[in-house]
Design brief:
0% strand; 176 residues; AhpD-like; 9 helices; mainly alpha
């Protein structure tokens, strides 16, 4: 399945989502690697098999094997970190001063450009709704030279891919 086939599955009531998916697939403010990685990590974070397969079919070939592995690693590590740091942020207390005691070595050595890995981590954090991680990764990518427009594009990709997954999940639930 490709992006076009995925767009065909989106019902008419979600036409805006379909149009946004199409326009973001050619987003020019991001490099090819940044854009493809944002789509990949957002699909993985969406947890929808159909969306993930379609996004991988469309974008995996635009990434080197190292970058594809790094994208998968970003989605994986942020799946853990977003839960943990959302808890720390929401509960507060002494948890903020306690060491996480969670292994996160991939963040220090992702195997690709650090700013791209951080941008992908930001996109996943947007999908997963972790404010503490969003703040942290946004600062790193901005300090790394990315513009507000590039940050916004990554988050827009995450938002739209998540909306596609939610729409198709809802349609599938109604059809069952």
């Amino acid at each position: 399945m490709t992006i076009e086939a995925l767009k065909e599955r989106i019902p008419d009531y979600a036409k805006d989502i379909k149009l946004n998916l199409g326009s973001l697939s050619t987003e020019v403010s991001l490099t090819t690697q940044q854009r493809a990685g944002c789509f990949i990590v957002s699909a993985l974070a969406s947890r929808n098999a159909e969306v993930t397969r379609a996004i991988f079919a469309e974008f995996a070939g635009q990434l080197s094997p190292e970058a594809l592995t790094a994208a998968k690693a970003a989605a994986s590590i942020m799946g853990m970190n977003n839960v943990y740091y959302r808890f720390v942020h929401l509960v507060g207390n002494d948890y903020e001063r306690m060491p996480a005691k969670l292994r996160m070595n991939i963040i220090a050595k992702p195997g690709i450009e650090k700013v791209d890995f951080e941008l992908w981590s930001l996109a996943v954090s947007a999908v997963n709704g972790c404010g503490m991680c969003l703040t942290s990764h946004e600062k790193v990518v901005r300090d790394g030279g990315l513009s507000q427009e590039q940050v916004q594009a990554a988050v827009r990709i995450g938002a739209v891919v998540h909306a596609v997954a939610a729409t198709l999940d809802g349609e599938d639930a109604l059809a069952a």
